[in-house]
Design goal:
Length: 556
Amino acid sequence: MADPTEEDVGDPPKPIEKVWPWQADLNKWMNKNNRANFKNVTRKQYIPGPHVLFDEVSWKSTVMKYRAPYRPRAEMMVQMLVTVLAQERTRHITGDDPDLFAAALRWQKRESAFEHMADLFEMYIEQLDLNPKLQDFAVILGLIKKPTELIPGEPVEIRHMSRKRLGLELMNLKLTLDSPEKLEIEEERIRKRSMDMVSRWTVLRDFLIHDQKAKASKVDDLVCTAAEAKIRNSIMGLGEGDVSVLDALNEEPEMDPQNSEDEKKEEDKEGGDSEAEVKHAQKDKDIKETASEEKDNTDVVKQEEEEEMSPKKLLKIRGSRLSLMTQEERDLFEEKKGESISSRFAKISLLEEEIQKLCRSSMELHKLWNDVDNNGNGDLGFTEWMQFVKNRFQVVSHERPARRAFMESATKDSTKPHKYLTKQNFEQFLSRMLQYTKLFTAFHYLDVDGNDQVDLKEYRNGGTKFRKLMGLREDTSLDAHFKEIAREDTQTISFLSLCEWYKEKYLDAYIENGFGGSNAYNQAGHLNEMFCDVNAFEDLVIHCHYISRMSSSAAS
């Protein structure tokens, strides 16, 4: 057989070119070859020249009225635009004054439009490997020291950043898309979370069994509420491969055909269901399966519609996974009369698991925010949050733990009388709220009489259960542990002193390690994948600026 010639072999397949998430949207309104020209035209809108209706002195006098910075999220966008648009000074070029350029941007674009730009910017970067956040860029700009800190609420001066420094900072961040090394990091993180989850549910299973036996010993007490029984039985059936307990609760258990036949025979012997009842049950099952298939089809259509939506519409979309739960699913999170502490704790853990999954999706988190922020003003007050959970998730509607989480996460500035949450600190609030609510629930093992003062004797009685349920270290004696937590003046533990101790000892580290996502996106070693350089970042900033400006003009 003759050797194939070059013509026979043909051209090798071309590698698929990767495109940053924002570039696909950018290409819809701007040709790739026109980007340098567009950047130059955009720059001229913010500098004096023949296109301005008045002379340079009058222009400067007008622009200088807008030198005061916006609030940090909006001001970050202002400074990023200055970096990518303004002409820098060299030996031969005078360049643009960065302070005047920033003032001109504020003159022509309102703070609300820059806030919208920040939302778009964050939506795009969270689609990169391991979900980087806006806080990572706040670190670069000197607003905060660590990505886990909150961005301040009050207006603050941000120092101008040169393109050279921007390039170096982007190299340090190593923002990538579909990096195999980072996918391994993500898989390892998911594996660890899964192992932690199995360990947590194993402990809860033991508690539920113990509480069930304690209840059964009391003749006048309920054996168990229906929801508690469902949770307990589902947890007992979980294996190491299970990740979502809530998914397991909503699944019908698989049965071996032979065992199923044997059970059917036993039922027949004992006078089981009639043939008519069996047919009726089968009909109900068919209806449920049809409804499930229709729901799946609806979800697919909805996903396709979302993919075609503009970034502006996506940021306003509602209907998160939590809000779309069925009434049966929501019933799992109600507090029932006579329910055990461990059952309430299990329900909070179920909800925590769902919220963690939700927080790993930027879009789902945006949806939840829009669901809670009923008036759509971009701020979330404590009352708004409590109204949302009281109607849906009673297990996390306790005011004391929720208020503490709110006060630690919320923003305060001079323009508003009360603290409020923003999108950028919403995820941290959710994390703190869930942890403090679990702590509040487990505290009932200690504070049996409900006076909010736990002495050493009470701690000796309930301390073992409390530590095991919260997953705390048990390498010290109960007396030593009590002394570590208790207030020196009263030698008792209150919920307040317990929160302060837990925050310092465990919670801050938990937040820093990442609640829904991961803060390890820049920890990969030698990467052969493309990373976000100055040019790609420039496209991102200009695209977000253009879209938010057009939206602002349309709204006006």
